[in-house]
Write a structure and sequence with these properties.
Blueprint lengths: L1 H20 L6 H13 L5 E8 L2 E12 L4 E2 L6 E2 L4 H14 L21 E5 L5 E4 L7 H6 L12 H9 L8 H8 L17 H13 L3 H10 L23 E3 L5 E3 L3 H8 L12 E2 L1 H12 L3 E2 L2 E2 L3 H7 L20 E3 L4 E3 L16 E4 L5 E5 L4 E7 L1 E2 L3 H12 L10
Parallel strand pairs: 7-17
Antiparallel strand pairs: 1-2, 1-16, 2-3, 4-9, 5-6, 7-8, 10-11, 12-13, 13-14, 14-15, 15-16
Helix pairs in contact: 2-12, 3-7, 3-8, 6-7
Length: about 425
């Protein structure tokens, strides 16, 4: 009986390994059904997905509405707010300067932005409620900014540093990047640099670094050195008025669980009206084909259609896990799956641990956006995918389902060598 049980277990492991080793083949019917279900179940007003593999398009599909009230369908040329999918673009811009020797990753941020030399860690409050702070154990580095270990805030917690962040409002659109930096440098750190992983405003500081190192406005730098060479003609922070008709509306889940249209004021303020702030961490608008050109560049080792954006070694560096195993405090990063974090990307470090985890292959790198958008680059399967939707609050289950549609429900990644 023991030998029989052992043989059965071995057979199951071999079967699982064989299934995992099979190449990923995109099933159009499965993809179409997943997108349609998202809309028919009321989980999204409209969705689209684009998948490239082995140098060609394997799938495009869309379901539902970009603007439900106007009955305008989700299409390839629909424009969406990609929110934090802006962050990888900013990271690429900064790493172009690293390749040029303008800085070292472990240089102190204050070497280039002196205001951050006064940073202090909050350790509590006194009896009058005033903050108690101390100097950090070491300076904040540029690597800390890129892997979210700087200790900076984002205004999302109910603690004293984030309360101060909200009071100073560094990301107000009326601030330019230097003013953003001055205000942010006055906010106490949550922890010593390098001690924890905590999502933050650090990518906006990266944008300020690009501006400081080049003497060029950040938006202009990105347009000249990334968007234009990649022919990403729809993508940018500032949009012409005639593109407003192509924008997808954002839908918010109400108390009744149903989707309600968010007022368009935020889109207008960020992209169609005068503003001073160009954020490094958000604000870009893109179409699914445009963002796929960025993703394909990464999959191709930093170049696309003759345009060299980064060296292959730099892409590999960005797509490697930079979190020390001692960094065990990672807030919600584990909800992304069996991952670590590189330079402006989450990086899959192992196969999915259970059926609830997102499907994916070890070595993939990715990020997403507040309105539930997602992209990933999967070198093992020579594949990249972009998923667009405009739904808040962020719904990670949509990502689980689109990944399952791409890979199949049982996929565990390539077999171990």
């Amino acid at each position: 009986m023991l030998r029989l049980l052992s043989a059965l277990v071995a057979a199951l492991w071999m079967a699982a390994g064989a299934a995992a080793a099979q190449p990923v083949r995109i099933d159009k019917g499965r993809m179409d059904a997943a997108l349609q279900q998202m809309v028919s179940a009321g989980r999204a007003a409209g969705v689209s997905a684009l998948v490239w593999q082995d140098g060609r398009e394997r799938y495009f599909g869309a379901a539902g509405f970009a603007d439900r009230e106007a009955r305008r369908s989700m299409r390839r040329d629909t424009l969406v707010q990609i929110w934090s999918m802006t962050k990888p673009v900013t990271g690429v811009a900064l790493m172009q300067l690293w390749e040029q020797g303008r800085f070292r990753l472990d240089d102190p941020v204050a070497q280039y932005l002196p205001d951050f030399g006064e940073a202090r860690v909050q350790v509590g409050t006194d009896t009058a409620g005033r903050p108690l702070t101390r100097p950090p154990s070491r300076p904040m580095t540029i690597r800390d900014l890129m892997r979210h270990t700087a200790g900076l805030s984002y205004g999302m917690r109910a603690d004293a540093p984030d309360a101060e962040f909200r009071r100073l409002d560094p990301l107000a659109l009326s601030n330019d990047l230097p003013e953003m930096g001055r205000r942010l440098a006055r906010v106490p750190l949550h922890f010593d640099p390098g001690a924890e992983w905590s999502y933050s405003v650090s990518v906006d500081v990266q944008a300020l670094l690009v501006e400081t190192l080049t003497g060029q406005p950040f938006e202009a730098y990105v347009r000249e050195h990334i968007l234009a060479p990649l022919r990403m003609t729809d993508t940018g922070w500032t949009q012409p008025q005639d593109r407003l008709a192509r924008f997808a509306a954002t839908y918010v889940v109400g108390a009744d669980g149903k989707l309600a249209r968010q007022p368009d004021e935020q889109t207008l303020a960020m992209n169609f009206r005068p503003r001073r702030l160009t954020m490094g961490g958000a604000g870009l608008v893109s179409s699914v084909d445009d963002y796929m050109r960025f993703a394909r560049m990464l999959l191709n080792g930093g170049q696309l259609d003759g345009a060299r954006i980064l060296k292959p070694s730099t892409v590999r560096l960005m797509a490697s896990d930079h979190l020390d195993p001692a960094v065990t405090e990672r807030i919600w990063l584990p909800s992304k799956g069996n991952v670590g974090f590189g330079l402006n990307f989450a990086v899959r470090t192992g196969p999915p641990k259970d059926s609830a985890e997102n499907r994916g292959a070890t070595g993939e790198f990715f990020w997403d956006g507040a309105a539930s958008t997602l992209f990933w680059v999967d070198p093992a399967n020579r594949l990249t995918a972009v998923f667009f939707v405009q739904k808040t609050p962020f719904e990670g289950r949509l990502h689980h389902d689109i990944r399952e549609a791409v890979y199949g429900p049982d996929y565990l990644g390539p077999a171990a060598p």
